[in-house]
Protein 1
Amino acid sequence: MRLGFFTDLVSVVRQHEENLELFMVLAWYIWCRRNKCHFNEQSLPPEKLLDVVESTLKEFQDKLVNRLEKVKPQPQHWSPPEPGIYKVNYDDAYFAEEEEAGMAL
């Protein structure tokens, strides 16, 4: 299989679910390292990358387990709004450097 795009690579990795989280953390670190190198900033040496990725992933997973143990799910009940009243979900973002904003409903 020829991998031409990152999405193609993700599709292949997703076939092996046990490696997906590790792959995603590794991809993030590679992206960060690339940016630091591009801007001539100090970055993690490649030979230390996998150890840091595994450590980061383990720390995240441990905290996630601890958090899930502490959180007790609350029963939720949705009820529609009264007639003539509308509920709207939205999300927005502002990018100061680009002086751009976006919103979705």
Protein 2
Amino acid sequence: TSNSMLLGFLEQMEMGEKYVYFSTGWSYSTCLQYHYVADQKTWTEAQTYCRQTYADLATIGNKEQNDQLLDTITSAGQSSEVWMGLYSTIDWRWSDGFSGVGANYSNWRSDQPDFNAAHDLCVAVRNVWTHDLCVSVRYVWNDLLCSYKAFFVCTSRPLGAT
């Protein structure tokens, strides 16, 4: 099966697909592909859509994966909030259950998370603007109401992955 996974990965790489590599806590590592979805949904609706169509909302375990997610968002021309798979009940956790090496990686905006009125329990990537210069500084994580409607990014396993 590892050969078929590798062949599926290489076939999709030849088609110019972008992948993120990380350990999922399983006995082997998998490559995930990010999919930007240009449809505004609440976090729960986005999670349901990703699970039915791909695998789950995007998980990020390190700076390289964060950069890959941002490349996916910016190449889609998106500059507003975009849901990813991080949420909180009491502790922050990933929608797909990821808890391996890198699960505690974060890229929060300097004043986040703020748990505004204790209702901000879902996380979006947000473009921060410098109003003095009227330019985008960087994309950072921001906690928002889960009922807020935003675009989102899903992940999926490449062809041949089990």
Protein 3
Amino acid sequence: MTGAAGGIGQAIARQFVANGYRVVSGGADLADLDRLEAELNLTHCLGAGSATSATRAIARN
């Protein structure tokens, strides 16, 4: 999921996790992604420009 660092993207990431989905998230603000990762126990939060890394993370899981 892109845009998870804040706003609608973050709200959607929270809802997906609440519904039992595994979420790979990305966004431009690494500090916000770190907080979201810690709060939701996410295993993959990727900074801007990491689309290839996100694809690989999804493939591994």
